[in-house]
Amino acid sequence: MAVVSLEAVLKPAVSQRWAVGAFNVANHDMAEGVIQAAESVGRPVIVNVAEVHFPVLEIEEFIHYLRDRMSRSPVPLVLHLDHGNSFDGIMQAIHYGFSSVMLDASKLAYADNAAKTREIVRIAHAAGVSVEAELGHVGGLEGDRRAAQVVDEKAFTNPDEAVRFVEKTGVDALAVAVGTVHGIYQGEPQLDFGRIAALRERLSIPLVLHGGTGLSRRDFQHAVAAGINKINFYTGLYSPAVQAIQGVLETENGYPELGTLSQAARKAVRQAVLEQIEVFGTQALKGY
Ligand code: 13P
């Protein structure tokens, strides 16, 4: 099956109130773990590759492998650029065949964020690629997932601004700041479910929750019931994969086969993704 568009997996999620996991992959083992999990239950997933990981991925070769692997899969899969933060990175992703890209200009003032997003939307749509933007700012650093992160309520998404932003930019999906952070939370996460519901009432496009790791099953279920449709999840795959590798190193006296380390990492990622697919309520897509 071809790699599909963001719209193909998120349109039914919006109308039927469920969510699709967008799982970040930072090497081949993570990619296999995510895709194998989706295949084993016949549910769609979004495969996220973040621009911050391009330098460690040998990106052109990695995307050749990923597109080939995804196009031979029986389940619908989206290949999505996560946190595109440079014009060049986003153009590269479009050139390599991502079906969807995120522009993260959320640290800029509203007008600059809107202008940059509009520019990327025009280019990406001309190439048949969908665009996610972020309004408000989800805290925490991409690429530094082990440090505890603090929520900044001042940066939460304003629903009135969000309506104007979507109209002005023509963006396909919107990442919203409602109390999540990337990486590890400092204290218990407190999500603003009322804000999600207000955004869902005013907007018809898919709403995206970044910083999935560390939220409880109840948090996810409330967020999805309130209107979240795409949930980004990375640290919760990375940590079990690293722990699994450390476990093999300890039990095999430090000299295991490299393939044994890969298998342990894949299995840990697969297991974590399967749990999240169930929690997010992801449904099989009709017609695929
Ligand atoms: P976590 O690492 O907190 O799951 O966040 C992932 C994310 O939002 C990627 O964009």
By oligomeric state, this entry counts as: single chain
CATH class: Alpha Beta
Total strands: 10
Q: Main sheet: which strands, in order across?
A: 1-2-3-4-5-7-9-10
CATH H level: which superfamily? Answer: Aldolase class I
Largest beta-sheet characterization: 8 strands, parallel, barrel
Question: What labels would you give this structure?
Answer:
11 helices, eight-stranded parallel β-barrel, binds 1,3-dihydroxyacetonephosphate, alpha/beta, two-stranded parallel sheet, single chain, 288 residues, TIM Barrel
Quick synopsis:
The chain is an alpha/beta fold and 288 residues long. Helix 2 packs across helix 11 (258-280), helix 6 (110-126) runs parallel beside helix 7 (159-169) and helix 7 (159-169) packs parallel to helix 8.
Secondary structure layout plus pairing:
Elements: H1 6-16, E1 20-24, H2 28-41, E2 45-50, H3 54-57, H4 59-71, E3 77-84, H5 87-96, E4 100-103, H6 110-126, E5 130-135, E6 148-149, H7 159-169, E7 173-176, E8 184-185, H8 193-202, E9 207-209, H9 217-226, E10 228-233, H10 235-251, H11 258-280
Parallel strand pairs: 1-2, 1-10, 2-3, 3-4, 4-5, 5-7, 6-8, 7-9, 9-10
Helix pairs in contact: 2-11, 6-7, 7-8, 10-11
The chain binds 1,3-dihydroxyacetonephosphate.
